[in-house]
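Many introductory courses stop at the sequence. We go one step further.
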Amino acid sequence: MMEQRTIKVDHELKELCTHGTAAFPMTVNHDDLLCFQGSCMACHWHEDIEIIVVRRGTVRYQIYQQSLVLTKGQALLVNSNVPHSAVPVDNSHVLLCTIIIQPEFLYGFPGSDMERKYFRPFCGNSRIPCILLEGKDEEGQEKLELLRRVETYFQERPFGFELKIQSLLLDFFFRIFSDNQEKVGRGTAADGEKLRRLQILLDYLHAHYGETVSLQDLAAQVHLGRESCSRFFKEMTGKTITRYLEDYRIGQSLPLLLAGNLTVAQIAELTGFSSASRYARAFRERMGGNPKEYLLHKS
């Protein structure tokens, strides 16, 4: 008998699996609900944006108090940090294509105009927990076609597929944001002085990530106190300094790991982690497995 899948979550129902990698922060999954324990996806949430396309059967998604029934060809966008679960309707055999995106894959630079004006006002917006995509008109059909092409490029992986997937998803979200301008509102672009300060902070972190970074030293680069610096960084990037630095360190460790001529302990030291166990824990949180498992997957 095939082992049934479960979605691993913490005590708050936050999913523990990382979607995509630091190098390519999105993924496309093909899920058969029959393979899950109880033939359903238990309630969970994550910081990523999830887009589900029904390939077969009829499925009921529960989003807070809202119950949505989707049939073949329909899709559902589930916003960041929104709890959701799925069950088949009338014992239907449900096959799903699930596109899961870490938003920074699309907006790039933390604190950029794209992040501040569009993604930050949208992600986790309580007025937009989910969006049903039905393809009833030409615009709806075009959105679904963009998702189909993302799936195809991810599966076939021709030259430049990463660029093509990013461009397709940006087109998709341009349409989503345009349709929901009233709910999202107009985000504000960062002023030049704030962007200059942020760039100084990022440059410092990128230059010193292999060392122990003092908050006091970092804050001194932009003539702020430690608490003011922390608030400013979170305001501009949506991340704490610690979270951003660990994400960056993990990203910098990947080419060292793939080169194969250093131990995990050496890589941990070179990328600023206090120990190999601290590095392995941060690696698992972001990559969904330990460094050895990552190398086996890449080989």
